[in-house]
Structures are given as structure tokens and as C-alpha cells.
Amino acid sequence: MGKELVIKDIAFDSIINELNSGKADFALAGMSITEERKEEVDFSIEYAESKQVIIALKNTNIKTVSDLNNKTIAVQLGSVADTYVSENIKTAKIIRQKKFLTASEDIKSKKANCLIMDLLPATELVKNNSELTILDIELFTDKYAVAVAKGNNELLKEINNVLNELINSGKINEFTLNHTSK
């Protein structure tokens, strides 16, 4: 795009404010496309889909979605998992963390019964933590896009061109994994 990339580590729940205040040009952080977010920002083409999964200790008694009732669930603050648990599992206690790795520590220390997150980074997390497993329970599938401030059509067009190149080259999954498993 002929621009210097400056990456800012922003709390997930503050990303839209960064865009709308002009402090950031775009958000590329597993930004799920939701109707609520569409009212606040414009989205690029979809570049990835991710199934939301449940991670727990291997000896968990969680076997169905209804088993999540009255459990303590870790999520990334401001993520679609956070919204999903808040809206659909009202009896759950929610631990909101800024990073997935911190949330996984909540499971290992038994502060939380499980963690809900995206499949791609979850796979890497479980690979590196032998006591954890991804449960065979379907929650929902999430779609990702780049978010820009409302009306920034020129930047959005440039981003869509780059995304099409990345999708066509097969690089998008590699980049997604590298930047969502932190």
C-alpha cells in the first residue's frame, strides 16, 4: 500500500474507539463482523472464518452447551465470545482477560472451567498445553474482516485489494494464526 505499518497493541474492547477517534487507521485483530459493529465502523471483505470452540481441562465434565450453565467461563475482553456468553449463558460467571494466554492460565489454575475462543489460535494453544483439550461442542462460526472508520472508502478499497492477494496466495491463515494466538 506504500505506507509504513505501525502496530499498536490496544485492549480489544478499545479498538473501535481508536478507529473512530482517528488514533488508528484500521483494525486487523480478529475483528468479527457483527450488526452492532457495522453501525460503528465499515468492514472490508471477509478474510477468514473461525469456529468458536470451548477449551477445558481434559477431565472436564462439560459435554454440551447446557453444561456451561453456572460455570466460570474465561473469554477475551470485548470479543464475540464475550458477547456470546453474556447473551446466551446468563448463569455463567465470566472472567474477561485481555489475552487468550492469560485466560488459559485461569483454566489450568481452576479459576475458570473453560475458555471460549477461535478455533485457529485454540488449536495452537492446546498443542502447547497438554492438559487442555478442545471440546467437541459446536457454538457458532465467526467471520472476520478489517475494520476502518465509517466512510473511509479509499482505505477500504486498498485493504480489499491486499486481502484478495493474501487470500489468493494462501497466506491469510498463516498471518491469522501468527497474530491471534498471542
Structure write-up:
Helix content is 35%, strand content 23%. With 182 residues, the protein is an alpha+beta fold. It folds into two domains: 12-47 and 145-180, Periplasmic binding protein-like II (D-Maltodextrin-Binding Protein, domain 2); 51-141, D-Maltodextrin-Binding Protein, domain 2 (3-Layer(aba) Sandwich). Strands 3, 4, 5, 6, 7 and 8 form a six-stranded mixed sheet that branches. β4 (72-76), α3 (80-88) and β5 (93-97) form a beta-alpha-beta unit. The longest helix has 17 residues, at 153-169. It is globular, with a radius of gyration of 17 Å. The chain starts with 14 loop residues before the first helix and ends with a helix. The mean pLDDT is 90.
CATH superfamily of the largest domain: Periplasmic binding protein-like II
β-strand percent reads 15-25%
The second-level CATH architecture of the largest domain is: 3-Layer(aba) Sandwich
Number of domains: 2
Shape: globular
- Indicate the percent of residues in helices: 25-40%
Give a quick account of the main beta sheet: strands, pairing sense, barrel closure: 6 strands, mixed
Number of helical runs? 7
Q: Low-confidence segments, ≥5 residues, pLDDT <50?
A: none
- Just give the CATH class of the largest domain: Alpha Beta
Instruction: Name the structural class.
Output: alpha+beta
Along the chain, the helix and strand elements come as HEHEEEHEHEHEEEHH
The whole-number mean of residue pLDDT values reads 90
- Radius of gyration equals 17 Å
> Could you please say which CATH topology of the largest domain applies here?
D-Maltodextrin-Binding Protein, domain 2
**How far is the N terminus from the C terminus?**
26 Å
Number of strands: 9
